[in-house]
Amino acid sequence: MSQIEIRDVSFTYPSRSEPSLKRVNAEVECGEFILLTGPTGCGKSTLLRTLNGLIPHASGGVLSGNVSMDDTNLADQSLAAICQHVGLLFQNPDDQFFCTVVEDELAFGLENLGIPPFQIDARIDAALTQVKLSSEFRGRAISTLSGGEKQRIALACLCVMQPRVLLLDEPTSHLDPTSTRDILEILRQLNRQNGITMVIAAHRVSEIAPLCDRVWLMSHAEIALDSPVNRAFSDLSPYRKLGVEVPELAEISEQMGLPERPLTVDQAAQLFLHSDKFPNLSAPTSNLSNFVSHEQRHQGSRNLLASVENLTFQYPRTEIPALTEVSFEIGEGEVTAIMGANGSGKTTLLLSILGLLRPTEGQILIADIGRERPKLRKLAGKIGIVFQDPDLLLQAETVNDEVAFGPKNLKLSRSEIQDRTKEVMSAFDLANLGNEAPYSLSRGQRQRTATAAVYSLLPAILLLDEPTAGQDFSHLRQLMGVVCDTVERQNKTLIFCTHDAQLTLQYAKRVLLLRQGELIFDGRPSEAFSNSDLLEHASLIAPPRTQLKWRLTNSQPNMPCR
Amino acid sequence: MINLDPRTKILMLMFFGVLVIMLDSAASLLVCFLISIGLIVLSSPSWRQYRLLVVFILFATWGLIYSQAIFYNASPRTVLFTLVGHDVPIIGSITGGVRVYREGLLHGAIQSLRFNTTLAIGCFIVWSTQPRDLLLAFVKLRVPYSLAFMVNTSLHYIPLIAAESANVIRSQRLRGFRYLQFNPFQIIRGVLNSFRPILTNNMRRATHLGEAVESRGFSPDIVGNQRTYLKSLKMQPRDILLIAAGTAILVVVITLKAMYFCYANGIFYAFWLRGMYTFVREIL
After folding, report:
1. CA A339/CA A519 separation, integer angstroms
2. Strands A33-37, A214-219: parallel, antiparallel or unpaired by DSSP?
3. Of the four listed, A173, A208, B89, B108, which is most buried by Cβ atoms within 10 Å?
4. Are residues A362 and A472 both part of a single domain?
5. Which of B132, B227, B228 sits opposite A99 (nearest CB)?
């Protein structure tokens, strides 16, 4: 008998006419590790919510079919009973914390169940050990934790309930590569050593696939593919068709015409060493037309747009500066990525360039603006930013109004506003969504709308803060493709923060690596990602393709850090 | 002072809440207000918190004094100056004239002292108490757990919502929007538009939070004795002393006010209480 059985489950949210789950059938064996993937909006989160009883217990809508665990229908159990067996980890830990101290957060669930305090104490220590944190964390304020630590605490909040099944909804989407690796290692141990069944919904297939036993590929509210991991990637076309990320190493193998689909660097190295062909391991790049090399830029062939000189910034009531003596120059038409671990100072740097944070020391000079920053509204048309949460920017009734909002504020003529709105909407592939309400759009469309709304002011510098968060592979590539193409064509400058190495390799012509507020590298992405020491120093991890290259050539070229 | 039991702090808020309603004189209300400011200073807030409090106090004071000065309708009232004469076309004939009254100004000042005292003590409690202790205090004071949790969570999310609102406003300004402009309809439209993302994000957050707490065994039906608590609160002698002092002051003030009420309405008068009557009239 399977641990979880999903029988003919269909579910429609109250405000929707189309079901979010359509006659889903699946089984989960005890101790299995399942990767649930699919494009944004395909029903992954809804399926997870039916597995922990939030649907139907805490949600409206129409549910049919059965979800049973150990032969007991979840619909017949209370949420308090289900949560002792099934834990659900959400995408953003900040959305699920409501206490200020770690210990209180960990105790919350057990207190609700009426567990005696002395048992709560012991369970908290055990849960912290499971997520590889010391008991000293008990007294820490949650606001002082890094992104990775927060997600570990969120996981510990579930472990403390001693569940037999863990459901995880995009648990690594807000984390840097090192924190992601740590969380995945913890999940692997919980699965292998404690026998906890895992169902993990994720867009980052490459990272999770090596850990899992089975893959569920969802499409249009249905499970389109349910396959053991060793057969799940035999045919990569369903993933490509749905715009889902394909494991990079499996893709290389497919390109070589090999039948095997390696998921780890070890597997790929073994495969390719015994193959008579050698894979093409050069990193993919975007086909932007007027790419200017790092050398050309430093020779001054481009107009200087911004200059950051010895920038130091320290937040009030902190002991360590968020940025320390950071210096670099930005020229017209550059596409620059800023990378580094959570808390390394990426967003602080963006906000400093924008002028929202006043440098503690040093200065930032921007062409046409100078030393003294004008009022924010005077920056319109010079610098634009899309914050990490694009929804905060969407305020108009229609997409058309949203994109026209900026040009209207610039007091352009009616015909200019119309022309520019039309042009930008066309460039960002929003032309057919003009009369839609921004909030009714999918996450990817909302991100595009927010970016287009900022871009309609034609800022000389466009700043994107973590455009990857919560985006699926195809939407992300679509957004970055459109932005980079438009920026390059119109000779604008793009600076974006990201944890995604492949995104940087594909679109950026320059990368700034930050470590604890210090700039440790400024150069080409391909140079940065071929230096293992540098990557380790910046808490980054080389993409599988690069790791494989190192393995096959048995060399790891190192370059001096700046 | 900041290490007081949170129950003591909540009871202090209640004492002051009743006291500022009972007191009528500007001098005694000013003393209450100064005590509340003293508490704030003792809780060592950040400059940002000071700034926030000052802004709130200034707005409240301005709003109350301005509105009371114009709309004061008790007698006697003395016109200090006229804003809109009764002979001004349309507005004058509709309103009968808009004037600023001296008694209204004083009444507004008294009301603002009342409001600001409770505001400052509320800030003192929130800024000097861990949310978990506040939650425990509410529960110990027999507030239903689900209500206490709701209050506590709201307080926890205020800084987040403030930060988010600031981001919305920044985003609009960076797109060239002017909040202060000559066209009031544009201002109203801009402000209303800025509410849209804030409201939507908060609804999303509330949904996520609701799901997160329910996934961890929380239910609005939880009653106090079904739930356990890892930590417990314990009153110290100084807490008991402060509560006793607060209660005593409140009882004395209420008693004095009641006796003065009886005297003023001809219900009871005693010759030997004349000093007390004077004290209540002049000081309280």
Report:
1. 10
2. parallel
3. A208
4. yes
5. B132
Given an 8 Å threshold on Cβ–Cβ distance, is A391 in contact with B201? yes
**Tens digit of each residue's pLDDT (9 = 90 or more) over A353-398:** 888 888 899 988 887 776 666 677 778 888 899 888 888 889 888 9
Please work out, in degrees rounded to the nearest 5, the angle formed at the alpha carbon of residue A514 by the alpha carbons of A508 and A519: 100
Say if residue A90 is in the same domain as residue A196: yes
Chain B environment of A382 (Cβ under 8 Å):
none
Do A450 and A537 reside in the same domain of the chain?
no
Interchain contact, B174 vs A385, CB within 8 Å: yes
Boundary of a domain, candidates A246, A262, A295: A246
Measure in Å the smallest separation between the Cα of A399 and chain B Cα atoms.
14
**Does A144 fall in a domain?**
no
Judge if A61 and A192 occupy the same domain. Answer: yes
- Give chain A's domain count: 3
Q: Are A199 and A187 in contact (CB under 8 A)?
A: no
Answer yes or no: is A360 within a domain: yes
Q: Is B48 exposed, middle or buried (0-12, 13-18, 19+ CB in 10 A)?
A: exposed
Task: Check CB contact under 8 Å for A117 and B167.
Answer: no
Q: How many CB atoms lie within 10 A of CB B50?
A: 13
Better-scored residue on pLDDT, A313 or B145: A313
| CATH code assigned at A488 | 3.40.50.300
> What is the length of chain A?
562
pLDDT in tens, A76-109: 888 888 988 999 998 778 778 878 889 999 999 9
Residue that has been written with the tokens 């020491």 in this structure = A533
Of B239, B238, B284, B244, the C-alpha closest to B260 is B284
**A336 lies in the same domain as A306:** yes
Q: Which residues of A touch B226 (CB under 8 A)?
A: 114
The pLDDT-based confidence of A290 (bands split at 50, 70, 90) is: very low
* Domain span including residue A24: 4-96+163-246
- Which amino acid is residue B214, in one-letter code? E
Query: Does the pLDDT value for residue A225 go beyond 70?
Result: yes
Q: Which B positions 134-173 lie with beta carbon below 8 A of chain A? A: 152-153, 156, 164, 167-168, 170-173
Query: Is the minimum CB–CB distance between A317 and chain B shorter than 8 Å?
Result: yes
- Tell whether A520 lies on the interface with B, counting CB pairs under 8 A: no
Residue A31 lies in a domain: yes
**Does A376 contact B156 at a Cβ distance shorter than 8 Å?**
no
Quick one: pLDDT at residue A297?
41
Which residues contact residue A141 at a Cβ distance below 8 angstroms, ignoring those fewer than 6 apart? A100, A101, A102
Residue from the list B46, B156, B170 with its beta carbon closest to the beta carbon of A376: B170
pLDDT given at position A562:
41
Say how many CA atoms lie within 13 Å of A257 toward its Cβ. 4
Residue from the list B176, B200, B227 with its beta carbon closest to the beta carbon of A391:
B200
CB contacts < 8 A, A to B, total 156
Between CA B152 and CA B133 the distance in angstroms is 10
Question: Distance of CA A356 to CAs A346, A451, B29, Å?
Answer: 14, 19, 41
Specify the pLDDT at position A96.
Answer: 81
User: Is the pLDDT higher at B187 or at A25?
Assistant: A25
| C-alpha torsion A359→A360→A361→A363, nearest 10 | 10
Interface of B with A in 10-69 (CB under 8 A): 46-48
Nearest-Cα residue of chain A relative to residue B192: A395
Is B203:A97 a contact under the CB 8 Å cutoff? no
Provide the 10 A C-beta neighbour count for residue B254. 13
A312 and A400 in a single domain? The answer is no
Identify all chain A residues contacting B167, using CB atoms and an 8 Å cutoff: 387, 389, 392
Residue A435 in any domain: the answer is yes
> Rounded to a whole number, what is the distance in Å from the CA of A19 to chain B's nearest CA?
20
Point out the residue among A52, A114, A383 whose CB comes nearest to the CB of B227: A114
> Rounded CA gap, B148 and B13, in Å?
16
Region A423-445: what's the mean pLDDT?
83
